[in-house]
Amino acid sequence: MLFGQEHVQRYQQTNGEEGHDWNNTTVLLLTTKGRRSGRPYTTPLIYQRHGDAYVVVASKGGDPEHPDWYKNLEQNSEAEVQVKGDKFKARAHTAIPEEKPELWALMTRTWPDYDEYQKKTDREIPVVVLEPVR
Predict the structure, then answer these.
(1) Any coiled-coil ranges, and where (predicted)?
(2) In 8-122, at which residue ranges do the beta strands (DSSP E only) sit?
């Protein structure tokens, strides 16, 4: 399974039967509104649950720039999330310093490469909390 637009399409076509479970972790689809275009953009992201919220990491593989989906959320914190067949609106916030260590540990347990990505870049990789708005 590819990670990218083909991943998004297979996930959407199968309600996550294909694409939710990926490389021994779990993936959701995050749809943000483009900060310049206003168009919707859907990105597959590794996630973990934390209470009622969903946690994702804006790593971009340790790139010096934040990923576009994160930049979009900085402009507009409202997004749509799909977890398997469940689609819902969510409000995003970047983990504050008090909550980040616990959430970073949660995410590196599911995807240890996040620690390597952080070593590759000078930027602090954000952890994003997606809180359902139902």
Answers:
(1) none
(2) 21-22, 25-33, 40-46, 48-50, 53-57, 78-83, 86-94
Residue 39 CB partners (closer than 8 Å, separation 6+): 33
CA distance 45 to 4: 10
DSSP three-state, residue 120: helix
Point out which residues pair with 25 in neighbouring strands. 22
By CB neighbour count within 10 A (0-12 exposed, 13-18 middle, 19+ buried), where does 84 fall?
Answer: middle
Say which amino acid occupies 71.
Answer: K
The CA-atom distances, in angstroms, between 6 and each of 1, 9, 19, 43 are 8, 5, 10, 11
pLDDT in tens, 87-112: 999 999 999 999 999 999 999 999 99
Domain ranges of the chain: 5-133
Alpha carbons 96 and 50: distance in angstroms, whole number:
15
Q: What is the CA radius of gyration of the chain?
A: 14
| pLDDT of the residue at 2 | 55
Beta bridge partners of 128: 56, 94
